[in-house]
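Whether sequence alone determines local backbone shape is best considered at the level of individual chains. We regard such an encoding as a compact summary of how the chain folds. The sequence in question and its structure tokens are set out directly beneath this paragraph.
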Amino acid sequence: MQKDKTLKDIQQEVDQYIGQFKEGYFSPLSMMARLTEELGELAREVNHHYGEKPKKTAEEESTIEEELGDLLFVITCFANQQNISLEKAHNRVMTKFKTRDKDRWTRIEGKE
């Protein structure tokens, strides 16, 4: 059984994959275009699954999980290209939410 990957593991795996190609990481602007493209594909899939817009019969089958994976890959590429630790970024944002937004929503009793 494969152990769960950490964000660091994911970043290293993506970096090893990209490192085998001469082109390397795309430029920041190209990365943003890819990120936007993948986000649009996720939105389309969510709309097909939960919205009123059914897929065309000739349209390829895709899943929300697959589109989230594509988005994670591009986010990881962008973080690597910018030398950003996703783990540190995650920790920073969670600290922000736990302090700034700690009283924003109604808590479930016993959960903190």
Summary: Residues 12 and 83 are 12 Å apart (CA to CA). Residues 28-50 form the longest helix (23 residues). DSSP finds four helices and no strands in the chain. The radius of gyration is 18 Å.
